Amino acid sequence: MNTQPEKIKRFDMKAKPKRQLAVLKPLAWLLSFPSLWLHRVKIHKVNMGGLKPPYLLLCTHMAFMDFKVTTAAIFPHRANYVVAIDGFIGREWLLRNVGCICKRKFTNDTKLIRHIKHVVEVNKDILVIYPEARYSLIGTNAVLPQSLSKLVKLLKVPVVVLNIHGDYLNSPCWNLSKRNNRVEADMAQIITQKETAELTVCEIERRIHEAFVYDEYAWQKKNAIRIKYRNNAKGLHKVLYQCPHCMTEYKMNSGGTQLWCEHCGKIWGMTEYGELNALNGDTEFSHIPDWYEFERSEVRKHIQNGTYSFCGEVTVESLPNSKGYIPLGNAQLTHNLNGFVLTGTFGGNPFELHKEPLSMYSCHIEYEYLGKGDCIDLSTLDDTYYIYPKGDCFSVTKFALATEELYNYCYAQLENEKAKQA
Question: By Cβ atoms counted within 10 A, which residue in 193, 304, 321, 347 is the most buried?
Fold first, then answer.
């Protein structure tokens, strides 16, 4: 097997996006609507009267079912979807012909902008983007790219946001087993075509961010969504990796409806309405996303005082095209205030990938990916590297939090330097 990255055929990112084949539209509906009926999906539409394509549809992203809800929301119109390259594995022909546009996550790709313009200007269809670029880790909204508001100015088409509720609760990314709870979605036109010219970039950004706010656990409690699944907490320690009682990292575990720390022995139970209660001692965080934000604050402290650092052995796979993953071998991954550095020897040749903090506002991670373990993926414009750290003294969730906080930290420093020079 050829493991030299420079000699592998790459995915054709230049191919223009196709209009969704009319013959495939009924297939998309057939694959989507049964699941929507099962989950009793309701879509609440606001300011959508008379709106027809082309327009930009921005969707929250929490589970695979999002795509099915989107299909129902835009029925009977066709669309082009921006999809990560791993979605194309083994089905490139199908995805291209249902209107999908390939993207490597968290990269700045000018070809994608040309494809997007082609969709709204030539195809005159709906352009669907999931700008969070990964499933929500803890049921709350993730960071959005700053370029979104500039894209709205460039496209000059109405902007619609589809904010979905219940998909995360049904199958959170840390435990994909289905709970079969009900699902709702709010679909609203937040910017008209006229307003794309009149509004400032800052105002466009504000409207998008306001429309993207969600909290699945708060929604569950408010709507009394009862989930009886016996393993509802299993896997939650993948996200909640630090014990708030003894402050130890990487010793959390979970199973059934409980979460516990292997180091100090403290146990929390998860109720049928998605809240945590300590079985011994005080409950530090009854609202699950608050625990996640506590971890973020701890990462931020380490970045600000210069002590954040990871260095460890990893195994690496490459995804240069839609044919599948290519094992490259062992390497070393470093993550610190200088960003990510991946070094190794693949196919007898030295390899190095450096991703500076300001080149990534976030990163994509996976839990127990394809049965191989937790991983982080780093992309260039022509390849994506799936990186699996060895051992158990790490958390890919911490990598994600640190990437976001490093970006914020370095961006603030850059802005301060600009202010001093002005």
Answer: 321
